[in-house]
Specification:
single chain, mainly alpha, 2 strands
């Protein structure tokens, strides 16, 4: 081994250091595992695997009940603002919870009585007429764009045949009597959900004290914080989405009726709900499907549908949403869309509705107990073309740099070196 002495070191000193280095390089080391540590690691790994197996078994065995319980929990926290208002005005909490649930049931029954027959008959007509709608739409596309698409081939690709259409239509064709089997089939699940929602709401404070008694004092503070987040923020989020979905469905139903959209009632309800509970793309899906059905009947009406959707989105964004969602949390569209996909995968179509509230609860807890640090000057820079936001991560508007350039070495406002100041000035312009 050769050794180059450092500046100022005598050669004798450098030689001694080199000898020490050579002796270190020639030594062998024996690595031994502490038996206690290995034993703990093995036990921990086995424990994790066993716990995962138990949870998977519970989910496979009682997944449906867990799903109903989660729905009941979401319903109970959605009821909390109304229950709290009644309780603060002298009504006992149990009675207040019962009154709110009774109001929900009566509202649902009133809707079914007023519009159930129309909704079911239009849904049956929609299902039975779907192949004809697809055929007419393909004919219109061929005529308009000089194409030669085969309607029958498209229907076969969609796996739609007369047998399946007849089976689906038979469920709805008899009006309200046609769905009695579905109603009775889901009656037990609905009753179970309402019973659990009632007890979770009526005995909420007592349940909170019972769970708190199982925890040490320091963990009780964490538990209270998590409980408040789940009830207040997530509850407000659920309520705001339900209110906005109801408003959206109402306006879409009225507009589709006036425009003359085929199957205006189910289409309007579909557009209103999808637009609220499927983020980013929900608005386009809610309008695209009614537009496709209308296109096969009267293409000019599609223009009116798009015009209404554009105007309503502005009204909802600047009038309804700020007032309804003033006290609730917001969920990033990408996270919300991912929550929808996960919810659908776990629970089916209804999972698209409950996925976002569950994500909101998790994000609220993370937001409360997060650890964040001050950004270095380079990370505070805002890049050219970046969307302006009002949150804490919007970036410094006085420190704008070109997009696509490395941040390493960027001249910061605190250290605008001469050789990089030109790059900073160019970014600001």
């Amino acid at each position: 081994m050769t050794y180059e002495p450092k500046d100022g070191w005598p050669e004798e000193t450098a030689a001694k250091v080199a000898q020490v280095d050579e002796s270190r390089d020639s030594r062998t080391f024996t690595v031994r595992f502490d038996q206690a540590s290995v034993r703990r690691a093995v036990i921990a790994t086995v424990g994790i695997l066993v716990a995962f197996s138990i949870l998977k078994w519970l989910w496979d065995s009682a997944g449906h009940f867990i799903f109903l319980f989660m729905l009941a929990w979401l319903l109970s926290i959605a009821m909390e603002p109304s229950v709290a208002w009644l309780a603060n005005h002298g009504i006992k909490r149990g009675l207040a919870s019962g009154l709110v649930i009774l109001g929900i049931i009566l509202t649902t029954v009133a809707f079914v009585v007023l519009f159930g027959g129309i909704f079911v008959s239009q849904s049956a007509d929609l299902i039975k007429g779907f192949p004809d709608t697809v055929h007419n739409l393909v004919v219109w596309i061929n005529h308009t764009f000089n194409l030669t698409l085969d309607p029958n081939h498209i229907l076969n690709s969609l796996n739609i045949d007369a047998g399946k259409i007849a089976e689906l239509a038979s469920t709805f064709a008899g009006g309200l009597l046609g769905i009695l089997a579905l109603v009775f089939g889901g009656l037990f699940d609905t009753l179970t959900m309402f019973v659990f929602a009632y007890y979770l709401s009526a005995d909420g404070p007592r349940l909170r004290r019972i769970i708190g008694s199982w925890l040490p004092a320091r963990m009780q503070k964490v538990f209270v914080t998590v409980w408040d987040i789940a009830v207040i923020k997530t509850g407000g989020f659920v309520v705001s989405k339900v209110v906005l979905a109801a408003l959206s469905a109402l306006f879409h139903v009225v507009a589709f009726y006036l425009i003359g959209v085929p199957f205006w009632l189910p289409m309007g309800i579909f557009a209103g709900i999808v637009a609220q509970f499927i983020p980013t793309v929900g608005t386009y899906i809610g309008i695209a499907i009614p537009a496709l059905f209308t296109l096969a009947v009267d293409p000019i009406k599609v223009v009116w549908i798009i015009a209404f959707a554009t105007i309503y989105q502005q009204i909802e964004s600047y009038v309804f949403t700020p007032r309804v969602s003033r006290a609730t949390m917001d969920v990033h569209p990408a996270i919300a869309l991912g929550a929808v996909f996960v919810g659908v995968e776990l629970f089916g179509p209804i999972g698209a509705i409950i996925g976002i509230p569950l994500a909101a609860a998790i994000l609220s807890i993370i937001e409360t107990y997060r650890n964040r640090y001050e950004l270095v000057p380079e990370l505070t820079a805002r890049t050219q073309g970046e969307k302006h936001t009002e949150d804490e991560f919007a970036g410094d508007p006085n420190f704008v740099v070109p997009a696509g350039k490395p941040l390493t070495g960027i001249a910061t406002p605190d250290d605008p070196t001469d050789d990089l100041k030109a790059l900073k000035d160019k970014g600001e312009k």
